[in-house]
Amino acid sequence: MDDANVILGLLYDRRDFVxxxxxxxxxxxxxxxxxxxxxxxxxxxxxxxxxLEPARGVRxxxxxxxxxxxxxxxxxxxxxxxxxxxxDEVDSTNDVAMGSAAQEGTGGLVVTAESQRAGxxxxxxxxxxPPGDGLLFSVLLTDGAELLAHEPTTIASGLAVAEGxxxxxxxxxxxxxPNDVCIRGEKVAGVLIESRPEGPTRATAIGIGVNVYASPxxxxxxxxxxxLSDHSEFAERxxxxxxxxxxxxxxxxxxMARRHxxxxxxxxxxxxxxxxxxxxLSGGVEQVGRVVDISxxxxxxxxxxDGGHVHLHAAxxxxxx
Length: 321
Hints:
BirA Bifunctional Protein, domain 2; 7-stranded mixed β-sheet; 9 helices
């Protein structure tokens, strides 16, 4: 392991000042201040901000920058997160992920960015997140369409985000079909899933945005929003993305094995829509009624006001209220 990553791992795990003497001992270069300085300079070149106090040592300045080595370190997933790339700014992490789909062995690739020039949500909406304030990333999957259908992937992705937040920040989340994660009724995260044929398989980009240190004003998005640091002192983006990736990896395996019962059970435990009366625009048609169920395979089951039942699919549906 190179010196910069040894230093980064120690500083990240400590989350406080570490003396130069201890850093030198960890790196194995006690007394070689130039070698330590080269390691610190490399971290600065990777975008990390480092606080220095002569009497106390050095520490990583917060918010801690997303770093591929930190995200991949000991992640221990089957597929998702085996390869991570981190950018300062891109148009869209989904676009970058999709652009890699034709390359062999890119399934499970994770693309993160500190900011997006053209970040987007569902139905053409814009995702608003100031640089460094949110967690913005995409996961590329290249499984066959018959094994990784859109409906269960949508359900599983939102659930993985909620579980990741709960695990890393100790905040209880609610799920709003098809793709919103909320805290006390206010949106904290969203998911955008885009797919296209890619040879004999299908490329799917799961785009995820989480408000970590700030959230957009209500007038900018038309609904109340919140951010994690308003609810927990433990909000840290590296921890959060690692938790979400582990849960995504788990649920991908369950979907591929066609085990949907637990997915349904865990999603419904967090569903804030059951038995509520809603208006949903689906395939250009407005449907009004009461939510009966959210199915990983059949979408939202709505008992319409006219007495009929209808299944609405996530890919073509938007909840109006």
